[in-house]
Amino acid sequence: MNTLIKLFAVLIALLLLYLYPLSAAFDQQDDISELIALRATTSFVDAVRNKGGITPVMYNDFMAALEATGNSFVVEMEHGSKTYVPVYDDPTRPETFHGTYEIHFDAYYNAQILPVLFPDNTLAKDDSSRRYRMREGDSFSVTVRNTNRTAGTLIFDMLNNTISPNEKIVIPYGRMVRHAMD
Questions:
Q1: Are 94 and 167 in contact (CB under 8 A)?
Q2: Are 116 and 77 contacting, i.e. CB atoms less than 8 angstroms apart?
Q3: With left for phi above 0 and alpha for psi between -120 and 50, is residue 99 left, alpha or beta?
Q4: Beta bridge mates, 104
Q5: Starting from the edge strand earliest in sequence, which strands make up the sheet with 73-88, in order?
Q6: Is 141 helix (H, G, I), strand (E, B) or coil?
Q7: Tens of pLDDT along the chain (182 residues)?
C-alpha cells in the first residue's frame, strides 16, 4: 500500500513539474499566435479600407504575417457593394420614375477577388489591372481561422482525454471602405 501511495505521489509530481508548465507554455504560444494573427488581420483590413482596394503585395504580406505564427490558416474575404437602382414603370421612359430606389447588395468573395489579384498571366505585381478595386461606402471583411491542431490544443486534449475542435484561432474583422482606389 505504501508503494502505491509513493507511485501516485511521483505521478502527481511529474504532472506538476513537467506537463503543467509545458501546457501553460503552449497555451501562451497559442495566445501569441492569435495576437499576431489579429494584428495582421486588422492591419490588412484597415489598409484595404483606407486605400479602397487590394493589391497582390498587400495580400501576400498579409499571408506571410499569418504564416509567421507557424499555424496554417484559411482566409475568407468578403466585399459588399450596395447600389441604388431607380424604380420605373417603364425603364425606356424616364417620366415613369416613381421617385424611389431599390437597394441591391452584391457580395464578392475569394472566388471573385483572388483571380483579379493573381490572374493567369505574367503581368507584374504592380500592374494596375491586378488591383481589386472597391468604392467608397462598400464593406470589406475578413475571417481568419486556423486549420491545424495547435500544440496547446494537443496537450490540453491529452491531459483531459478529449478531442477539441481544430479551430482555436478565429478572427472576424471588417469595416466600411473609406476611399476609392485610384
A1: no
A2: no
A3: left
A4: 83
A5: 97-109, 73-88, 139-146, 170-176
A6: strand
A7: 788 888 888 888 777 777 778 778 888 888 899 999 999 999 999 999 999 999 999 999 999 999 999 999 999 999 999 888 888 888 777 778 878 888 899 999 999 999 999 998 888 877 888 999 999 999 999 999 999 888 787 777 776 777 777 778 999 999 999 988 77
Helices and strands (H, E) in the chain, number of each type: 5, 6
Pairing label, strands 53-54, 132-133: antiparallel
List all residues 6 or more positions away from 55 whose beta carbon is below 8 Å from its beta carbon.
117, 125, 126, 130, 131, 132
Helix axes 20-51, 56-67, angle to 10 degrees: 170
What size, in residues, is the chain? 182
At 6, which amino acid appears? K
Cα 52 to Cα 29, 78, 114, 175: the distances in Å are 34, 14, 16, 12
Q: N- to C-terminal Cα distance for the chain?
A: 80
- Comparing C-alpha atoms, which of 53, 29, 37 is closest to residue 132? 53
Return the residue matching grid coordinates 437602382. Answer: 85
